[in-house]
Amino acid sequence: xxxxxxxxxPVITAVIIIFGLAKGIKVFDCFTVGAAKGMKTAVxxxxxxxxxxxxxxxxxxxxxxxxITKMLSPLAELTGIPADVMPLxxxxxxxxxxxxxxxxxxxxxxxxxxxxxxxxxxxxxxTETTFYAVTVYxxxxxxxxSGCTVPAALIADMTSFFLSALTVxxxxx
Length: 173
Hints:
Elements: H1 2-22, H2 27-61, H3 64-71, H4 73-79, H5 86-91, H6 96-110, H7 115-126, H8 130-141, H9 149-170
């Protein structure tokens, strides 16, 4: 299987180039035009992404994450989400790397088969980095107003948090 994956990308690339040449398309010109557009998109995305990274770093370094987690502890008790998993629920919609780091800490501290580890695993598998996704996808096409996207996505994330705890608790496999 490893050999197949090692050759897959070069084969796909070769097929695309051969197909383009067969159709009379100037493949290299198309590539350079696409690369230039990609660079423009990347430059356009840098400011919002830098703001997002700065915000997550400040949230964690300032201790605000701990304050937010403590404020949400009554909600955690009500929904069955362990208090030690709450920082993951705060970071998950904001930062993929931040939530992955928090997830790793939960697994190291409690183990993957603990209720905390299992709930955190389900959360990681069922939620999206909402703000990152909106920043990248909307920013790349120039959408300034997200409308109901962010509230709807956050409601979906909260539903996933609650159902993660409920599922792991009820279906104790």
